[in-house]
Amino acid sequence: MSLDRALAPDPYDLLPQVPSFTVTSTDVTDGQPLDELYAHTSVGGKNLSPQLSWSGFPDETRGFVVTCFDPDAPTGSGFWHWVLVNLPVSVTSLERGVEPLPDGAFCVRNDYGERNYGGSAPPPGDRPHRYVFAVHAIDVDGLEVTPDASPAYVGFNLAFHTVARATIRPTFQVRG
User: Fold this and answer.
1) d(CA 100, CA 130)
2) What are the φ/ψ torsions at residue 73 (nearest 5 degrees)?
3) What are the φ and ψ backbone dihedral angles of 16, each rounded to 5 degrees?
4) Which Pfam families does the UniProt record give (predicted)?
5) How far apart are CA 58 and CA 76, in angstroms?
6) In what order do the strands lie in the sheet with 63-70?
7) What is the rounded (10 degree) CA torsion for 52, 53, 58, 61?
8) Which CATH superfamily is domain 16-172 in?
9) Rg of the chain taking only CA atoms, in angstroms
10) Helices and strands of the chain, counted as H and E runs
11) How confident is the model at residue 19 (pLDDT cuts 50, 70, 90)?
């Protein structure tokens, strides 16, 4: 079976536009392949979240949400790898494989069904997938969601509370 299909749009192009700020990483580079450390164990990775740092967010920021989304997953709805909510405004970086999470922060269930970072694992032989790591600056101390919330529900809440967003978009491919 062929997985040839149209390229999915950037998910944030489909939302109301907000100002941007800066996200950087010592582990990933925009537009460049992810190291296998950040891939899922099912494809030989270590399932570690990459280091991320951010700056230049608006003064009205009261907290952050960090997400990782693969718009290229052959699902019709992409694939959520990480949804980390309710980071305090004082947290402006996450170390590689961040554990424990900062006080008050938690992960909702990703599309693997787990409450953690789930590494990249595109189908073998598929084209390189884009992984959109986004840091959302929010205007509340925390979203009113629980760990049982879906990534879509978190995204719906973000639509009303995001004051700025920073993204970095590495790629990953499993050779077939």
Assistant:
1) 27
2) -60, 135
3) -55, 135
4) PBP
5) 34
6) 106-107, 79-88, 63-70, 132-138, 162-168
7) 70
8) PEBP-like (3.90.280.10)
9) 15
10) 1, 10
11) very high
- In whole angstroms, what is the distance from residue 143 CA to residue 64 CA? 9
- For 65-93, give one letter per residue: b (16+ CB within 10 A) or e: bbbbbbbbbeeeebbbbbbbbbbeeebee
* Per-residue pLDDT tens over the stretch 95-128: 999 999 999 999 999 999 999 999 999 999 999 9
Please state the pTM of the whole predicted model: 0.97
Residue 123 in contact with residue 52, Cβ under 8 Å? no
Task: Provide the pairing of β-strand 132-138 with 52-55.
Answer: unpaired
- On whether the CB atoms of residues 36 and 46 are closer than 8 A, the answer is yes
Strands 79-88 and 93-94: unpaired
pLDDT tens readout for residues 133-163: 999 999 999 999 999 999 999 999 999 999 9
Pairwise CA distance, residues 172 & 33, whole Å: 5
